[in-house]
Design brief:
Largest sheet: none
Number of strands: 0
Structural class: mainly alpha
Helix content: 55-70%
Shape: extended
Length: 125
């Protein structure tokens, strides 16, 4: 089977939600998710989930989700984590959130102090 025919077959399976993005990546031999996204974009496949799909997962109305995820929304972390967990399962990916820890906070403070000193020095010239 030619590469083009194989890509068409895999693309059809993805569009019909028979395989995940992670499976597509593996089958086509791509190293990164960005390569998969570029492939899908090239073939006119939008990465989208409907509010109805998210509503089924979160057990909240689509209208409620729209308000929560809209520009003026203020979702609770629990609600966001439910949605993220669903998207991770649907796309076959995994990521985790970790505390930056004291070292990063300290470096930010030092960076902030450097910025204040530079601003102060520039104003005093």
């Amino acid at each position: 089977m030619s590469r083009t025919a194989f890509e068409a077959l895999v693309l059809t399976a993805y569009r019909e939600r028979k395989i995940s993005a992670a499976q597509l990546r593996h089958l086509l031999g791509y190293e990164t998710r960005m390569e998969v996204d570029a492939f899908l974009k090239k073939h006119g496949v939008e990465l989208e989930y409907t509010l109805e799909e998210l509503s089924d997962v979160t057990h909240r109305s689509a209208k409620s989700l729209m308000r929560m995820l809209g520009p003026r929304g203020n979702p609770q972390a629990r609600n966001l984590f439910e949605i993220v967990a669903y998207l991770q399962r649907a796309e076959g990916v995994h990521f985790e959130v970790r505390s930056a820890g004291p070292a990063l906070r300290a470096s930010r403070r030092r960076g902030s102090l450097r910025a204040k000193r530079a601003t102060s020095a520039a104003l005093n010239r």
